[in-house]
Design goal:
- The protein has 243 residues and is mainly alpha-helical.
- It has a domain of 114 residues.
- It is built from 13 helices and 2 strands.
- It has a two-stranded antiparallel sheet.
- About 4% of the residues have low confidence.
Amino acid sequence: MKLNILSWHDMNRERPVSAVPRPVVFLFAIALLLQILWHTQQAKPVARATELSTAPSLALLKVFSLGDPVSLSRLLMLRIQSFDNQPGISIPFSKLDYKKVVSWLRLISRLDQNSQYPYLIAARVYAQVKDPDKKRIMLNFVHDGFLQNPDLQWPAMVHAVFIAKHRLEDLELALKYAKDIRLHVNRDDIPSWVRQMELFVLEEMGDLESARVLLGGFLESGLIENEREFRFLQDRLGAANSN
């Protein structure tokens, strides 16, 4: 018996395309075309924003802090600050749920009660959005924190006065905040103009009589010790009256 043994070269020699049956070539071309069409119809992957979760309880976080709540508060602050930048997407502050943001900021402030940062970022960053309702949510948070510790949180309250006055154009709210600064801050090392903000808001409101009474009170209480400063403020109110 004669065996027909193929060499290794013969077994691995490629067959020409012309040797492939035409129906097979046709089916392959159709399959390739369908594959291309399927890929072109697929939507491109879109980055989706992750919604900010509700803040957990203070007691739970104190357990996870392992006795170092200050360090945990700083880590959480970094998380909140970076939440607007997620992989593949940037989220405007105006799109965030401000009630949830406040819940996190309040929790962070309780973990580190000697920090000004949660209230400063509320006034200087989150309150800068155009939405007036969201501005007020942040200003209310700042005001609440200020009343709990006026001598520590007065810088954020100063920003709140400016936002109420110039962004919200709510002079009544600005006056309330400025008055609270004058009444509740007891430390002696704050700039004199901070206590005098109430005077400037009254001037803006056109209530010059109340402004003069307040100015006289500043002089009697020793809040204004410099005679030149007193004369400057008095002349300013006089000029406003003549206008």
